[in-house]
Amino acid sequence: MENKKLTVAVYSLITVASLSVSVLFIYYILNSNPSGYNSYITYKNYFSFCGGYVYTAGDTVKISKNSEYNDLNFEVRNLITDKIVREKASDLKCDLSGIKFNELQRGTVTDKIVLIESGIYVFILRSGNLNLYQNVLFVNEKNDNPEINIVLSDNTWICYNEFGGRSNYRDSITPGIIKTIDHFRNRDCRYLYNLSMYRPISINNEETEMLINDNYEIKESRIYHCVVSEIPLIKLLFEKYRKNFKITDCIGFENAAVSGNNKLFIFNGHSEYWTGKMMGRLNILKASSNILFFSGNNIFREVSRNGENLTVTRNKIPKEITTKLTGTFYRIKDFTNSSAFRIIDTDNFLFEGITSTEIGGYKAASIETDAINEYTDGTFELLASGISIDCDIVLQTNNNNKYLLNTSSTGSYNGLKEENFRKFITNYIDVSLK
Fold it and tell me: DSSP of 57-79, one letter per residue?
């Protein structure tokens, strides 16, 4: 009898202990917010720019890189001058085998190069004739008070970046039990976990690889929506407004001092992920500066900065908020369809010198597009629409005679190949600088 009582007591103690451990484990899971970038690197061949993606002529670019090969070399090509400015073996030893994901862009420097000229630079890490990894950075002229500021969509790059196992679209590193519990709690894991800003950006590597394979021609058959989609308009600015513009990133737009000389702000590429501070700044700038959204899927998701990470705080910004800022809102994506634009208001001053009512070519309205809706108010004028796709170009004029032009298409960069669409965009830039 005594043995039976002892057995029952032991089993009871084990049960209580097990339940306690289970409760503590569930509590930990529910309240943890792991970054997911604490395991060591398993990728063998990559590099990362230690200081970000925007520089000024004369700056030293510091690079972290890692490779399983010893005979490494960099090709560095300026797409503006079409010159190879470096093609030689690495200056510094490459040994990052122990560094962590989130230390790459601020970690051990294994190479460096001084870029004397402004331009758009493609970096290719090679072993012999084998391309291992590639990416793009941008170098400004020395200009502290530009009339044109063009803002890269680097927040979007970060959120599409799968290096290390997690983007805002795929997550192969968060434990399955966490995702299962969050599913039952009706919570989207994307809202919970950080996306490190300090990683090599794999989506840019993939896009740059396609660009190189096409001999640096941006072909309409490709779908570019990150770094390569930024290139055509920046090339145009170098061609026509070289001494008068400055490239910046999203943090730079948030924090830069704005002067009366800043006549035009351009949001380029795929301007999808915005912080609240960016939206607030845009709302203020609309009263004093001209704005160009040369992009689509604009201001669709909200992120916040958490130290060295971005965290998605709203996976869909309300339609009325974005439409008030830009005049249009994202429609359902359809990568298979595309269209030229048909001009609606042929008498508008921005179409001066244009010889056709159809502009941009068949890929100008493509990839991800935005359209007018019930929240588009009377301050916006409809200038053109996609012929066979929902995509609307709108122009807003405020009481201070400042303008906001929105092309509403991530594929806008394709339109610059067509003479009339290119003229339409340069007309707007020229009017903004008067």
Answer: TTPEEEEEEE-S-SSEEEEEEET
Length of the chain (residues): 434
Instruction: Report the DSSP beta bridge partners of residue 304.
Output: 311
Q: Which residues on adjacent β-strands are paired with residue 274? A: 302
> Rounded to 10 degrees, what is the CA torsion of 320, 378, 357, 338?
10
Q: What share of the chain is helix, strand, coil (3-state, %, to 5)?
A: 30, 30, 40
Give the chain's domain count. Answer: 2
Helices (H), 141-213: 154-160, 176-184, 202-213
Q: Average the pLDDT over 358-381 and give the result.
A: 96
Give the CA angle between residues 351, 352, 355 to the nearest 5°. Answer: 75
pLDDT digits (tens, 9 = 90+) for 130-145: 999 999 999 999 988 8
Burial of 392 (0-12, 13-18, 19+ CB in 10 A): buried
Domain range for 398 is 148-164+195-304+313-432
272 and 330 together in one domain? yes
Residues 6+ apart with CB under 8 A from 290: 263, 264, 265, 402, 403, 404, 405, 431, 432
Contact 250, 154 (CB under 8 A): yes
Q: Which among 163, 171, 160 has a CA at the least distance from the CA of 44?
A: 163
Whether residue 191 has pLDDT greater than 70: no
Tokens of 62: 């510091």
Do 134 and 201 share a domain, yes or no? Answer: no
CA 253: distance to chain centroid? 13
Q: Is residue 3 part of a domain?
A: no
* pLDDT(349) > 60: yes
| Tokens 């391309």 found at | 131
Which SS3 state, helix, strand or coil, does residue 414 take?
Answer: helix
Per the structure block, which two tokens stand in for 181?
């519990």
